[in-house]
Write a structure and sequence with these properties.
CATH class of the largest domain: Alpha Beta
Number of helices: 14
Structural class: alpha/beta
CATH topology of the largest domain: TIM Barrel
Order of helices and strands: EEEHHHHEEHEHEHEHEHEHHEHHEHE
Largest sheet: 7 strands, parallel
Bound molecules: 2-succinylbenzoate, magnesium ion
Distance between the termini: 13 Å
CATH architecture of the largest domain: Alpha-Beta Barrel
Radius of gyration: 20 Å
Helix content: 25-40%
Strand content: 15-25%
Length: 366
């Protein structure tokens, strides 16, 4: 395909409720969308970077500039999704930015071919089990209200964000109020040190599905120590930046479950390789989320349809994130969300909504 132009669109979207993690509180998203125009079709993608470089080193404004100034100029005149990453290999890091470019090209390519992303990736599941990620709260009663609301809304699994000082008590309170049958897991976003092991081992009492990324991104060996000491499975998020990183973490015994985020690993093609590596090793996976709008969520749903996605994913209904999503809203019914079936990612921004909410648009001609 020949790319005629690429539009970078910035959208400011308030979250329906502040989302607090061990790395900070988010009240809104600074979203970067890109739209690739080719003679055959247009392609859309959402960059998952946050407004500030606190989950990873990437952030929206940096991704915007690196896409416009460094990535797009390196694309070949005749481009396919498979040729994007090789063309960008001279740029170090910036996986979320690279993933955005690859996804938009892939979306255009699949729309031109009339094929869904789910079919292209090899999805075998037509709906996914929806979990919800619950931020750190100011009080236990407030947390219990929030969790109760999500359970009433039908979510099939609850994930509690934890940090030192907010870990055993909230888990105990949720178990006490809602019982042992609630599928429950926790995510520390790297907030602990190896020396916290004795304190956090108390979580083993609560029958959690998994403990996600307790230690820093680089501390794969520490996760291996913890995995050997805990009864609860250790799952990695931040540490798994590629299929190679996944293979090595598994070989070292650092995790027995993997959270797959396409932005973090540099795109859907690499995300599929992470899936395949884990499947071959007998390690189940689930889809993480980055508070995506419907554009990013649609593509995550396609990936979560692959056969080794056997645990509930962080893919919630639109109304858990935004009062007004950029696409037709996704809704959870009986704890499930359908995988989109239309060509490409299967959705596009609603033009009027985008026109109203866009705060900046830049057109680049390669
Ligand atoms: O660690 O999984 C994470 C959101 C932003 C950054 C990191 C994480 C998250 C979430 C939200 O947990 C999951 C979702 O999108 O529903
Ligand atoms: Mg996480």
């Amino acid at each position: 395909m020949k790319i005629e132009s690429v539009e970078l669109v910035r959208v400011e979207l308030p979250l329906v409720t502040p989302f607090r993690t061990s790395f900070g509180t988010q009240t809104r998203r600074d979203v970067l969308l890109i739209r690739v125009l080719t003679p055959e079709a247009e392609g859309w993608a959402e960059c998952v970077a946050g407004k500030h470089p606190v989950y990873s080193s990437e952030y929206t404004e940096g991704a915007h500039r690196v896409i416009a100034d460094e990535l797009l100029p390196r694309l070949p005149g005749d481009v396919t999704a498979a040729s994007v990453m090789p063309a960008l290999s001279g740029v170090q890091g910036h996986r979320m930015a690279k993933a955005t470019v690859e996804t938009a090209v892939l979306d255009a390519q699949l729309r031109a071919a009339g094929m869904s992303l789910a079919h292209y990736l090899g999805a075998t599941q037509s709906e996914i089990v929806s979990g919800v990620s619950v931020g750190i709260h100011d009080s236990i009663p407030g947390l219990l209200d929030t969790v109760g609301g999500y359970l009433d809304a039908g979510y099939a699994r609850i994930k509690l964000k934890i940090e030192p000082g907010w870990d055993v008590a909230p888990v105990a309170a949720v178990r006490e109020r809602f019982g042992d049958n609630v599928a429950l897991q926790v995510d520390a976003n790297c907030a602990y040190a190896r020396s916290d092991i004795r304190r956090l081992r108390a979580l083993d009492e609560f029958g959690l599905l998994l403990i996600e990324q307790p230690l820093p991104e680089e501390d794969v060996a520490g996760h291996a120590q913890w995995a050997a000491a805990f009864d609860t499975p250790i799952c990695l998020d931040e540490s798994v930046v590629s299929a190679q990183a996944a293979a090595e973490a598994i070989r070292l015994g650092a995790c027995s479950i993997v959270n797959i985020k396409p932005g973090r690993v540099g795109g859907y093609l690499e995300a599929r390789r992470v899936h395949d590596v884990c499947q071959a090793a007998g390690v189940p996976v689930w889809a993480g989320g980055m508070l995506e709008t419907g554009i990013g969520r649609a593509a995550n749903l396609a990936l979560a349809g692959l056969p080794n996605f056997t645990l509930p994913s962080d893919i919630s209904g639109s109304d858990r994130y935004y009062q007004q999503d950029l696409t037709e809203p996704f809704t959870v019914v009986d704890g499930l969300i359908p995988v989109p079936t239309g060509p490409g990612i299967g959705v596009t921004p609603i033009p009027d909504v985008l026109a109203e909410l866009a705060v900046r648009r830049e057109v680049v001609r390669p």
